[in-house]
Amino acid sequence: MGLIIRSSAIHAAGCYTTTAIRKGTRVAEYTGHRLSKRQADLSYEDSPITYLFGLGKGEIVIDGHSMAMFINHSCAPNCETEEKNGRVWIKAIRNIAPAEEITYDYCLYDGGDDEAICNCGAGKCRGTMYSREEIRRRKALQKKAHSNGASKNGSKPKR
Fold first, then answer.
1. Tens digits of per-residue pLDDT, 70-98?
2. Is 141 helix (H, G, I), strand (E, B) or coil?
3. How far apart are CA 146 and CA 131, in angstroms?
4. Which of 43-47, 124-128, 130-134, 147-151 has the least mean pLDDT?
5. Domains identified in the chain, total number
6. What is the spatial distance between Cα 89 and Cα 62, in angstroms, rounded to a whole number?
7. Of 41, 43, 46, 129, whose CB count within 10 A is highest?
């Protein structure tokens, strides 16, 4: 299997396959230096783009420096990630044709106020790289903040 980096409509550069890839095949490993979440937050505090991948519950992250860092997010991906024995693999979830861009759903979950806008172009694009669970969590927090703010000033929330 061959992978190349070239221009992508999703985000600047993307990772593409030069050969067909069968469902279930490990496409790439996400490698790089390992940092604590705190170290990563401090190192990339002012950086708009990072290549960080959270392990386990996110307390340790991989600072991506490999072919896998060019694999873009999609809401309709052809791959998924698999964490096994402290290593992160990108694995095909369907057959992938030669010249197709390799993608996986980033399922972001910790980004503060960042919108993490998605540009994947999928028919059912969520509009964000955040996971469905994170979207629900954020909406619940917004709703709670809105209702708390409304009750403080005596007005009812708009519906």
1. 999 999 999 999 999 989 999 999 999 99
2. helix
3. 22
4. 147-151
5. 1
6. 12
7. 129
